[in-house]
Amino acid sequence: GERGTGKTMTLCHVIHFCSRQGWLVLHIPDAHLWVKNCRELLQSSYNKERLDQPLQASAWLKNFKSSNERFLREIKTQKRYLWGKRESTEEGRPLGEVVEQGLARVRSASDAVGIVLKELRQQSQRGSLRLLVAVDGVNALWGRTTLRREDKSPVSPEELTLVYNLRKMMRNDWSGGAVVTTLSQTGSLFKPSSAYLPQELLGKEGFDALDPFVPILVPNYSPREFESCYGYYLERKWLQHENARTEDGKAELQFLSGSNPRQLDRLAGPL
Amino acid sequence: LRLIHTTTAVQRKNVGASGPEKYTEAFIKKQIEEFNLGKRHLANMMGEDPETFTQEDIDKAIAYLFPSGLFDKQARPMMKHPTEIFPEQRKIQWGEDGRPFHFLFYTGKQSYYSLMHETYEKLLNVQKYQDQLIAQDLPLQKEKRNLAGSRWLTKIELEEMLLEKLSDDDYSRFIQLVQKLMALPGSDIEEKYIQKFSREVPVQMQKVVIEPLQHDERGVAFSTGEGRRKTARATAVVYDNGTGKMTVNGKGILHYFPVLQDREQLLFPFQFLDRVGKHDTVCTVSGGGRSAQAGAIRLACAKALRSFVTEKEVEFMRQAGLLTVDPRVKERKKPGQEGARRKFTWKKR
């Protein structure tokens, strides 16, 4: 959908619903943050060609830990992972340890993310837990990046560990969960501001990768939605201006915002 | 010391500056003949019929043959009848023996005083006529002439008519006299004389015609309006029975005007008439910048809405300034200054 029509909000609704139902939620707030303006890029220890992003990975691990604490104690690792010469995680240890290892050793945070994703994929395939992958701004995974290596050669998204692992999650090869994504133009790189269709934003590669794909268009407010939003603002006493409470005020707000939720929010803010 | 070699400039006697050159009658006649001949030649050159060659055709031909880029129209080449070019001048007022023709010559302002005398004579005539009517017990007719549509001659016009200079005092006295003459009830008989001294004032307020509503194929009433502001030109078509949507150049208003200020400008005509959600609009706009386009569309919508609305509301709109074209345009940059008003930095040394 277009800018400001409520795609991220709908995603949050879905996440809330699923977490209420008891699913494990893997939420990436904005995939564009992983492909732009990175300060540090390390060469990955696991795979020589790829590049790590310690900062973003650690931030995400922190969020993941705080949101899914009880799952982390329950889920056990399947394999033995070597972190360096001396540290390793044995089989059967709770996943929380992997996360903490990633937080403690910032250098290997991206690998920790990769491990977490792999484990969760395998476990949900077995059926022990239900997994929801919610990615906001999924078109970042297949576009270009603004990052460069030290020799000023551009980096393509496949060469970033985080992006590579995430793409594996998006493929159709596991079951027992759901993938809900949004396409966002606002953070996207090198795309015109009027593009909002999936094909334009994802590019051919991305479109093929997300193959069995149900597109949902999020339009501007319908008249009913607008009235309910307006009623909500009135109830919560957000609209303080006397004129805002009249019929004329309502018509004015509708015209000026063009029934766009973001514009309505910005208009109603100072009122 | 004797002056031996001198220049001619010194030898010329100090002659005082004479007034405007006097043209003799023969000179004027010769000019008229030359003008007519030239007119026929010009008609021949342009391939038109010399008999039916009007002054307009002459102007067009001259503009074609001598194109000029000068801004002042009166500085460009022109070919007009000599009476328009050479100002009227008084012929010599006295005969060969030195005796003046007019009896009031020695007053100095002979035509002015003769005019005053004539006007006073007419006044006396009217009074006599009035007395006659009263004597015969006939009703005095008083037809109201259209005072609002006419004005008296200005001082300059009167000077041109009399061919002599007047003072403000003289002019005011004359006007007072003519007004007194017109105020008298029986002045209908001197109507013709008075009309020589009054001019028609062109009607200022041209009655703006409000177009009636046109109907679409589906039966929806609509009307068009045009607006402009500062180089932007816009046309708006306002349909009835709508939901308040607006399309500009094929895009919605949110896309075309991301700034709130522009959208508020568009909202204003509808909000003023309390018809915010009732009309659909389709607009096309070109030229200008963001703000100018918004102002142009606002004017176009207001003009289109006139057909949907009563006359009183049209009057309200006019007073609110919704129907007036904004005359502000970019001011010209002057030489010697950096911008239109900004001067160069002043350095003391």
UniProtKB/TrEMBL annotation, chain A:
- Provide the Gene Ontology terms for cellular component: mitochondrial small ribosomal subunit
Q: Where in the cell is it found?
A: Mitochondrion
Q: Which keywords does the record carry?
A: Mitochondrion, Ribonucleoprotein, Ribosomal protein, Transit peptide
The molecular function terms in GO held by this entry are:
structural constituent of ribosome
Q: Which Pfam families match?
A: DAP3
Domain of life, per the record? Eukaryota
Tell me, which GO biological process terms does this entry list? apoptotic process
Major place of residence: mitochondrion
Q: Which family does it belong to?
A: Belongs to the mitochondrion-specific ribosomal protein mS29 family.
Annotated protein name in UniProt:
Small ribosomal subunit protein mS29
UniProtKB/TrEMBL annotation, chain B:
Does the entry feature the keyword Membrane, yes or no? no
Q: Where is this region: Disordered?
A: 328-349
Is-annotated flag, keyword NADP? no
Say which domain of life the source belongs to. Eukaryota
Pfam families assigned? Ribosomal_S9
Which keywords does UniProt give here? Mitochondrion, Ribonucleoprotein, Ribosomal protein, Transit peptide
Mind listing the GO molecular function terms for this protein? RNA binding; structural constituent of ribosome
Where are the bilayer-spanning segments?
none
Per UniProt, subcellular location reads as: Mitochondrion
An example GO CC term for this entry is:
mitochondrial inner membrane
Stored InterPro entries = Ribosomal_Su5_D2-typ_SF (IPR020568), Ribosomal_uS9 (IPR000754), Ribosomal_uS9_bac/plastid (IPR023035), Ribosomal_uS9_CS (IPR020574), Ribsml_uS5_D2-typ_fold_subgr (IPR014721)
One record GO biological process: translation
Q: What family name appears in the similarity comment?
A: Belongs to the universal ribosomal protein uS9 family.
Q: What is this protein called?
A: Small ribosomal subunit protein uS9m
